[in-house]
Amino acid sequence: MGQQASALHLAESVRANYICAMTNSPLASSPLQDFVGRHDNLFVLTGAGCSTNSGIPDYRDSHGNWKRTQPVNFQAFMSEEPTRQRYWARSMIGWRRFGQARPNDAHHALARLEAGGRCGMLLTQNVDRLHQSAGHRQVIDLHGRLDLVRCMGCGAKTQRSEFQDRLGRVNAEWLTLDAADAPDGDADLEHANFSSFNVPSCEACGGILKPDVVFFGENVPRDVVATAQDHLAQADAMLIVGSSLMVYSGFRFVQAAAQRNIPIAAINLGRTRADDLLTLKVEERCEAALAFLL
């Protein structure tokens, strides 16, 4: 077989695998299993779809559009007391269930992938720490972690569970309220008057307290981005799990992988921003697509 014919045959084979995965046929996991088996150093990027089966809602629909009002903006949180009152009131209600979330089979499957020596680094856009709870060791929390609270004045950090107790002590009347879960520990507490909600300040310096996560309008720390890029530079393939990649902070790593010409596979229900860059796409729930690892 000539080189041109061989290249054509390879391209058709890759395209056939892509189409097979898109059809959600019973063999849909086979191309993914082959993809994982062919690579020794996967760089894994995970998003909200990885945690939905743990009871944490995601932000976007299958078309990549917002399901609800966009999350709080960093500038508004820092400059407006009403925004901080609204955020922390909703968070106090939402944390009660978010803080009890446990890893699902997708998290356990990726931990197995690492234990088997095939995942060099996992970069997650999630702030729930469920990968670490599942036993995953090499994890970069791209957008921070919700289980910590940071003072924007002196930089002191405290456990979110401790701050939850403080919130409850000064807002006892709010503890009887309940609301539907929203992404990242938020709660759909609509039509409430937040003006009476008390937001504690830093006990050390009186500064503004903020969850130790990257809000919309806030930059991911440069050292976090640099560390992730270093690991991606060593990878021989990339696997995206449960992300539409609509946020640039995650999408840029897919762009970097494409520039290196390494294969990219994605598991996601619906459209992603990187569909035209993918070698393989599996439109299936994350835990089902990764079941072969368990």
What report would you give on this structure?
This protein is α/β, with parallel strands linked by helices and 294 residues long. The chain contains ten helices and nine strands. It has helices at residues 3-22, 29-37, 74-79, 81-98, 105-115, 130-133, 160-170, 222-234, 248-259, 286-289; strands at 42-46, 119-124, 139-141, 144-151, 157-159, 209-213, 237-241, 264-267, 280-282. Strands 3-2-1-7-8-9 form a six-stranded parallel β-sheet, sandwiched between helices.
Using only CA atoms, what is the Rg? Answer: 21 Å
| End-to-end distance | 39 Å
Alpha-beta classification: alpha/beta
Total DSSP E strands: 9
- What would you call the shape? elongated
For the sheet with most strands, the description reads:
6 strands, parallel
Extract low-pLDDT stretches: 1-29
Topology diagram in text:
Blueprint: H1 3-22, H2 29-37, E1 42-46, H3 74-79, H4 81-98, H5 105-115, E2 119-124, H6 130-133, E3 139-141, E4 144-151, E5 157-159, H7 160-170, E6 209-213, H8 222-234, E7 237-241, H9 248-259, E8 264-267, E9 280-282, H10 286-289
Parallel strand pairs: 1-2, 1-7, 2-3, 7-8, 8-9
Antiparallel strand pairs: 4-5, 4-6
Helix pairs in contact: 1-2
